[in-house]
Amino acid sequence: MPPRLPTVTGRRLESGAWFAVSHALVRGQLSNSQMVCGGWLRKDRRSLTRREFLSLVAKGAIAFPFANRLSALAQQNSGQALPGIPPNWELNRDELLEEIVSRAFLFFWNEAGKRTGLVKDRALADGTPDPRRLASIAATGFGLAALCIGHEREYLPPRTIRARVITTLSFALNHVEHVNGFFYHFIDMNTGKRLILSEVSPIDTTIFLCGALTARAYFRDPLISQLATTIYRRVQWRWMLNGGKTLAMGWTPEYKFIGSRWDTYCELMMMYLLAIAAPVYNISPSSWEAVQRPRIDYEGYSYLSGDDPLFVHQYSQAWFDFRNQRDAYADYFVNSATATYAHKLFCLALRWRFPDYDANTWGITASDSRLGYQAWGGPPEIGHIDGTVVPCAAGGSIPFLPNDTLDCLLNLYNRHGGQAWKRYGFVDAFNPLNRWTDLDVLGIDQGITMVMAENHRSNFIWNNFMKNHEAVRAMKLVGFRPTGRAAAACRVNFSSHHFCRC
């Protein structure tokens, strides 16, 4: 049976993205001529679009599933058998939410450097000791959120958790390698130094900042506040504009600014909001208006989205509370709910090809796959879909569609728990058709599921993050306003699948 964890008292670019591209370059799968000073270029020397960059990332990951092979070796050497699940092993919704959150906390606690607080990008799902030392600055941001949750729920002694928060923020401020305040995507968990040709990443830095600001607001501790504020203040957002109206996708010492920009609707909202309200090197609110907002129409539902995986509709709203508010372009909470439901319908439409998908077994977003890391999903169909289920697709959308997502997650646990549930909760991905099971969990996928599960049951991260005056000020600067009763009534109807299409 799955190792049910008692509560300890009695979860672009995606993780693995630049890792895959870097190794594809090293192994010759990408031509050096495709990279020039100033960024990634097509053969016609125009900058890659974000969609093309994600596709390139996925191809690089397929060509180099290094992390999967390493984790398989560690699993082989561990000699531990995969646990089964008895037929009567079932949980209700509240119990499942607690299992998800407490096991994610365990991951973020165990898989962080004790002297640094830096959280591994990935680790073995069964908790087997793992020699990998690749840390992710985004996973570390989610780790700070996990520490706040663990402190509130007394998963460990409060002083112990507070000390880890201080260790993490102090090491990030004083020792983690950065450029103009922006952190590298991947770093050594013991030294904080850049690893594997990683890029300086504004989006991953943002996720770290969101975790740091959550800790600042929650603990109200002078030292924690000083550390978090200093880290935020030194980020030179104007530099990352690189002379444009929108932020560059990243920077490397070898090739300088990546040619692509954060210029199309995705998970970028949190980044622009923090940049616009930054205490020192802030950017103009006009950058918010410069972002393109394409629409997708699917099965009668229309919503803002590029051709991206589902996670792009989740990450910003892990922190910023967009409920009952909208700007000139959208009610983003309703938009994410619509995108989630459209994704569920998309998965159901694939059932003739992959019969494992059904009303309570669905979800495909950027994740590991049998062939390596993939940026996959839909609609429209992205990547080499093969029937794999990615639990964080539903997990990251729990507040948007609680009935649909929790029914799905309960079914994945009760029906597929022997395959998909380990010490740290759900594995990153698994395939019920061919029985492939990822050996790993990924920090950002654990993080988004944990934060959204906690937001659904308590509003905890929303309530604390929105205590930061910069968050409130940013939303005002870009024109957010209350939606009123009509929109609120529309949102209630989502639970019955009667979506507002206006």
Give the structure's gist in a few sentences.
The chain is mostly helical and 502 residues long.
Layout of SSEs?
Layout: H1 17-26, E1 35-36, E2 39-40, H2 50-63, H3 66-78, H4 93-110, E3 122-124, E4 134-136, H5 137-152, H6 158-174, E5 178-179, E6 182-183, E7 186-188, H7 202-219, H8 222-233, H9 237-241, E8 251-252, E9 256-257, H10 269-276, H11 286-290, E10 295-298, E11 301-304, E12 325-326, H12 332-349, E13 367-369, E14 372-374, H13 391-395, H14 402-420, E15 421-422, E16 425-426, E17 440-442, H15 443-458, H16 460-465, H17 469-477, E18 481-482, H18 485-492
Helix pairs in contact: 1-2, 4-5, 4-15, 5-6, 5-7, 5-15, 6-8, 7-8
Task: Provide structural commentary.
The chain is mainly alpha-helical and 502 residues long. It is 43% helix and 9% strand. The protein is built from 18 helices and 18 strands. It has helices spanning 17-26, 50-63, 66-78, 93-110, 137-152, 158-174, 202-219, 222-233, 237-241, 269-276, 286-290, 332-349, 391-395, 402-420, 443-458, 460-465, 469-477, 485-492, and strands at residues 35-36, 39-40, 122-124, 134-136, 178-179, 182-183, 186-188, 251-252, 256-257, 295-298, 301-304, 325-326, 367-369, 372-374, 421-422, 425-426, 440-442, 481-482. It has a two-stranded antiparallel ribbon. A hairpin with a 3-residue loop joins strand 8 (251-252) and strand 9 (256-257). Helix 1 (17-26) packs across helix 2 (50-63), helix 5 (137-152) packs antiparallel against helix 6 (158-174) and helix 6 packs parallel to helix 8. The longest helix is centred in the C-terminal third of the chain and has 19 residues, at 402-420. Residues 1-47, 49-87, 488-492 and 495-502 have low confidence and may be disordered.
